[in-house]
Write a structure and sequence with these properties.
- With 202 residues, the protein is an alpha+beta fold.
- The protein has a domain at 61-196: Pili subunits, CATH 3.10.610.10.
- It contains one helix and ten strands, in the order H-E-E-E-E-E-E-E-E-E-E.
- The chain has one helix at residues 11-63, and strands at residues 66-67, 83-85, 95-102, 117-124, 127-132, 145-148, 151-160, 163-165, 178-185, 189-196.
- Strands 1, 2, 3, 4, 5 and 6 form a six-stranded antiparallel β-sheet that branches. It has a four-stranded antiparallel β-sheet with strand order 8-7-9-10, covered by helices on one side.
- Strand 4 (117-124) and strand 5 (127-132) form a beta hairpin.
- The longest helix has 53 residues, at 11-63.
- The termini are far apart.
């Protein structure tokens, strides 16, 4: 009786198996990389949306508590308007967007100061920045906080007496009824927001 001899893999079969394994490994790595890239892109977009929502919430809070109150500049002169609003043509780099006094400045430490706060919003280097004054009158705004970056373009409109216009005439006894701010944002595209201001009795 003859003994059957165990037959192993030939060199060609081994090379074919290694080639197939290499293809599967490459495909697996590509799939994992694609999943990781998708997760990173989704996380970046969520971070961007969160930044935008924080900026919007602060704008809404400030504008929603705007007060009809003029301030004095550091040189002692009185501001002409109770609310400063830039026109769209003025929205270039280093442009003052809004400047006004808001109510409701929280004071948990019962510091000897008013509950009113002077607030400025600026566009600077493609960023939306917010700054405040330590006191209402006679002081300069402090260091700015960056709320939103990646701003490619901005437009603004104001509502007064039921009409929308590209500029705010201002005045010591009037606030706009609403503000519309359109921002062209990297990663989000153009976003238009409207903010209501408190009604002011004539």
């Amino acid at each position: 009786m003859s003994l059957s001899r165990a037959r192993g893999f030939s060199l060609v079969e081994m090379l074919a198996a290694l080639f197939v394994f290499g293809l599967l490994a490459t495909a697996g790595v590509a799939i994992l990389a694609s999943v990781a890239d998708s997760r990173a892109a989704a996380a970046a977009r969520m971070d961007r949306l969160a930044q935008f929502q924080r900026a919007r919430a602060l704008l809404q809070s400030d504008l929603g508590q705007a007060a009809l109150r003029r301030v004095r500049h550091p040189d002692g002169s009185a501001a002409r308007n109770a609310f400063h609003g830039a026109t769209s043509s003025q929205l270039r780099d280093e442009a003052l967007l809004f400047a006004f006094v808001r109510r409701g400045w929280s004071n948990p430490d019962a510091a000897p100061r008013a509950s009113l706060q002077y607030v400025e919003y600026r566009l600077s280097g493609g960023r939306l920045e917010r700054s405040t004054r330590p006191m209402l009158d006679g002081t300069r705004a402090g260091d700015a906080t960056v709320l939103l970056d990646g701003i490619r373009a901005a437009r603004v409109r104001y509502q007064s007496r039921g009409q929308w216009s590209d500029g705010w005439a201002g005045g010591a006894t009037e606030l706009p009824g609403a503000v519309e701010l359109a921002l062209d944002l990297e990663g989000l595209g153009e976003v238009t927001q409207r903010f209501l201001l408190p009604a002011v009795a004539p």
